[in-house]
């Protein structure tokens, strides 16, 4: 999921006031700790699958990032040189690293020592920003903005990884009690799906130079779109239930060949954390198990399931270019996230209601939406030089792009140009589906 700051932003060296940067640094680092606060040391050690990581590891890795890329090059000694091997994620240039599937076996350092390490790194970063020369160090400002955006991405991963781990427990543990409340009370009654027709033609896609963006969001470029239509809402639990009852998971004509193999090999009958119980659809979430409402979005779909469900509904997945060309006109940043600084863990008391912007609901803040687009570089894309640019470009293969944002997405990461990406079988993220069709 992680990506890196655009080359334009690196060159410009965004000049933030050190006091503002200190405040932002404190807020982001505090939010990570607030998300971990409801968890025991045992909870923070859990790793449900090779694709996920323990919460303790996320807290340590984000600290390693600041220490390695900000502090050490400026003359600070590392807290413990051995930690680089444990908490380096994908940076080949930074030396050997512990295998990802075995992160849950790292009982040492302890949760408490990781907390101490975090506090010491925070003290050093803040002392660095208090120096007069910090105001002229544009490279420092860029690195810190990048590191904070990186940590916010790990905050979303922390939540999805906790959910995946707790879902393995027959006791159905509750992570956030408020999330157990019924959600349908805030849903407006749904009528028939409305289709927003788009004339197509020449469109510009991607982030503009200047404001912070990850490098996979650019360069901005022109694309040609054929006429299409985009659905006004995410596909609902009710629509998925009808698909399942109609034998959707056992009808080969609905599935891509690779998807059908995946369904058969893994005995897939429903999205992750979801099961049918008579006429009810039960989901497991942050607040434990609950009964869904037919009009709320169906979540935790794989790309394969999303594609088959779209086919059954007589439609298709949008391309990422189609999605962005519509979303950029309906973007409302103040309502684009489920996070809220005034709540203990950083969220609103409930996932956001399905606000309507120019007739479209749930573009942001509800679920990442699968597209039919391969995760590939935009024309003219070049990875950053050195270790800091190592992550993104080398992962542009065998993955699909998701657009929008979810109820787990931190502030500032909900924007029309943001490109999330996962392998097509991924379901532990908060993933959904918006339909498109040709005109």
Topology:
Layout: H1 7-12, H2 18-36, H3 55-71, H4 83-87, H5 111-129, H6 138-166, E1 195-198, E2 201-205, E3 221-225, E4 228-234, H7 237-245, H8 257-266, E5 274-277, E6 280-285, E7 288-291, H9 303-312, H10 320-330, E8 356-357, E9 360-361, E10 367-374, H11 390-393, E11 400-405, E12 420-422, E13 431-432, E14 434-438
Parallel strand pairs: 10-13
Antiparallel strand pairs: 1-4, 2-3, 4-14, 5-6, 6-7, 8-9, 10-11, 11-12
Helix pairs in contact: 2-6, 3-5, 3-6
What's a quick, concise take on this entry?
This protein has 439 residues and is α+β, with helices and mostly antiparallel strands.
How would you state the average pLDDT, rounded?
A: 89
Unreliable segments (pLDDT under 50, ≥5 consecutive)? 1-14, 349-354
How many β-strands, per DSSP?
Answer: 14
Distance linking N and C termini: 33 Å
Instruction: Please tell me what the overall shape is.
Output: globular
Number of helices: 11
Give Rg in angstroms. Answer: 22 Å
**Helical fraction:** 25-40%
- Structural class estimated from helices and strands: alpha+beta
How large a portion of the residues is in β-strands, by DSSP E? 5-15%
Largest sheet: 4 strands, mixed
Major sheet: arrangement of strands: 12-11-10-13
SSE succession: HHHHHHEEEEHHEEEHHEEEHEEEE
Task: Please supply descriptive tags for the structure shown above.
single chain, 439 residues, alpha+beta, 4-stranded mixed sheet, 3-stranded antiparallel sheet, 11 helices, 14 strands, globular
